[in-house]
Design goal:
539 residues; Nucleotidyltransferase, domain 5; OB fold (Dihydrolipoamide Acetyltransferase, E2P); alpha+beta; 5-stranded mixed beta sheet; 24 strands; single chain
Length: 539
């Protein structure tokens, strides 16, 4: 399998990075120069408001909109302000520590003091006891603001390197959960301990750290420690709110986080971007510099690899499957609904086997589309009904395997009695659709507009109310051309009746430039003065 990373920055306003496997688009990242990307940045912020009802604080961190800090993202060191000793909390010596927390592994006789995966204390004092308005706090953006919501913040700082992640609050060494081989995990943990990391700082070996030499891990640790010293010095010497540390640009970030030895080539179509990537590779991964290529062809890079049509199809509602059938993707405010349709898919097998084969194909495409569209939140997959329990389990396993390569955290439930597979996918930033598109001014994002007949009925209602408004003697209504044609041809008799009953003159004007649902009403009295229609203010 040939795997390539294509980096398109021929236009300064946009950077696009595509991951191809045997010519098939598997991952796509798009970042606009005009869009502010705060995820990963570290700030020294100031508490501006506390909301005890939701146990959260709002933090001004200097970007023009306040961030959201929940109590679950507050590190134990901040508990001192509430009169709690962080060491005692982490050791379980706090009020309520002897209460059974419902854990299967530990009872009230042996309280579970902290979450074993995150090293975070399970006990959290009320946020109003930890912070006061005006308090300074060091935070990192972990999720972009979506819609009217501000960015999500955390006091658990994590700084990624190429092979390691520095996590000051962790206080110990660990290995990424994606590295499943127990023997390799033990070797990596011991190698990290042999490097004698400073006491009090935590390090996690990333997936890219597998099969790396002690020297490579040592260099990465030294780089992260130098960076942490700079950050600590800035925190001490600057006021709040202020910017302490900014993540690298998308090219460096993607190479650092995604590039692996199975990627055969990195192709860049911009000289300056190529030089930046080369400098980074020479510093961090010198053995792979030869895989970096500068594309200087006349044909645009993404057109050469037939990606533009593929990218254009990403936002289509219906996605065809190879061999027949399709999946239909609908996004709402609360969740994403994905429906598997059989369509023209037919084989000589039984209906049960047909459904199973189509569902297996759909499970892989669903995982791919979720990555490409960057959809997150609650996702409900409606697969074609299958009677055999073994088939259901295999489809679940296929979906889990296909989602395993996804960098976003996911959780997949078993098939429900209604044949649905519910799952969640970590939402870090707005979906690709929200980044590239905006709501249509005609339909307000609904995807549909009223028919000419529906608008005509509504206009007649408005006419009836306007004609009975005191002092109105002449009404002019401008509507879309199709609506005007329906009114003048099909509603002419009703309009004449309104004119005769109210002694009012009515004029219908059509315009191609008006949206299908848009209308303008101009009411005049006998002297030609404008008459205001109060009931239209509510529309």
């Amino acid at each position: 399998m040939r795997k390539e990373m294509l980096i398109n920055v021929s236009q300064a306003e946009e950077c696009r990075i595509a991951i191809l496997e045997d010519g098939t688009l598997e991952e796509l990242y798009i970042e606009r120069a005009s869009a502010n990307n705060y995820v990963g940045n570290i700030y020294k912020g100031r508490i501006v408001n506390l909301e005890p009802s939701i146990q959260a604080a709002f933090v001004d961190f200097g970007v023009g909109r306040n961030g959201f800090l929940h109590i679950s993202d507050v590190e134990a060191q901040y508990f001192r302000q509430a009169g709690y000793d962080p060491d005692e909390i982490m050791d379980g010596n706090y009020p309520g520590a002897d209460i059974d927390d419902g854990s299967e592994e530990e009872s009230h006789e042996r309280p579970q003091r902290r979450n074993p995966r995150t090293n975070r204390p399970r006990f959290k004092p009320p946020i109003q006891e930890i912070f006061r308005r005006g308090d300074e706090v060091m935070v990192q953006v972990i999720k972009e603001g979506i819609g009217s919501k501000g960015p999500t913040l955390s006091t658990y700082i994590s700084i990624p390197g190429r092979y390691l992640v520095l996590m000051p609050a962790l206080g110990r060494v660990g290995v990424s959960r994606k590295i499943e081989d127990e023997q390799q995990r033990r070797v990596l943990r011991q190698t990290l301990l042999d490097l004698n990391p400073p006491k009090g700082l935590g390090f996690i070996v990333r997936t890219a750290g597998q099969d790396r030499s002690r020297l490579e891990l040592s260099r990465d640790m030294a780089y992260l420690l130098r960076l942490w010293k700079v950050i600590a010095r800035r925190v001490k010497n600057t006021g709040s709110p202020s910017d302490i540390y900014e993540e690298s640009d998308m090219i460096i970030r993607t190479i650092r986080d995604i590039f692996s030895e199975d990627i055969d080539a990195i192709v860049v179509d911009n000289k300056a971007a190529h030089d930046r990537a080369k400098e980074f590779l020479q510093l961090v991964m010198p053995r792979y510099v030869s895989r970096l290529q500068l594309y200087d062809g006349r044909e645009p890079l993404f057109y050469k690899y037939n990606l533009e049509k593929e990218i254009a199809r990403i936002q289509q509602r219906v996605v065809p499957l190879k061999g027949g059938g399709s999946i239909v993707i609908d996004s709402t405010e609360a969740l994403v609904a994905i429906d598997v349709n059989s369509g023209s898919f037919r084989s000589e097998a039984s209906a049960e086997d047909n459904a199973f084969q189509l569902n297996m194909s759909a499970s892989k495409e669903i995982a791919r589309q979720l990555r490409l569209r960057d959809l997150g939140g609650v996702i409900v997959n409606d697969f074609i009904d299958m009677r055999r329990d073994t088939h259901r389990r295999k489809v679940e396993r296929s979906l889990r395997d296909a989602m395993r390569r996804d960098r976003a955290r996911t959780k997949i439930l078993r098939t429900s009695p209604f044949g649905l597979i519910e799952m969640t996918r970590q939402r870090i930033r707005p979906s690709l659709k929200r980044s590239v598109y905006e709501d249509c001014p005609c339909c307000q994002g609904r995807g549909v507009v009223k028919t000419g007949e529906s608008m005509s009925i509504e206009v007649v209602r408005i006419l009836t109310m306007a004609c009975h408004t005191p002092k109105v003697s002449r009404i002019s209504i401008r509507v879309n051309e199709k609506v005007a044609a329906f009114l003048n041809n099909n509603k002419r008799r009703a309009i004449i009746q309104i004119e005769e009953e109210s002694k009012t003159s009515v004029q219908i004007l059509g315009s191609e430039s008006l949206y299908p649902e848009h209308f303008e009403v101009d009411c005049r009295d006998a002297d030609g003065n404008t008459v205001h229609l109060a009931f239209l203010d509510e529309k």
